Amino acid sequence: MLYNENLTQMNFIEELKWRGMIHDIMPGTEEQLAKEMTTAYVGIDPTADSLHIGHLVSIMILKHFQRCGHKPIFLVGGATGMIGDPSGKSQERNLLDETTLRHNQEAIKAQLSHLVDFDSSAENAAELVNNYDWMKEFSFLDFIRDVGKMITVNYMMAKDSVKKRFNGQGDGMSFTEFTYQLVQGYDFLHLFQSKNCKLQMGGSDQWGNITTGTELIRRKLGAEAFAVTCPLIKKADGTKFGKTESGNIWLDARYTSPYKFYQFWLNVSDEDAESYIRIFTMLDQETIANLISAHREAPHLRQLQKRLAEEVTVMIHSREEYEKAVKASELLFGQATTEALRSIDEQTLMQVFEGVPTFEVDRAVLADTNILNLCTELCPIFPSKSEMRKLVQGGGVSLNKEKVTTIDRTINENDLLNNKQLLIQKGKKNYFLIIVK
Question: Which residues are catalytically annotated?
Answer without folding.
Answer: 47, 52, 55, 89, 93, 184, 205, 240, 243-244
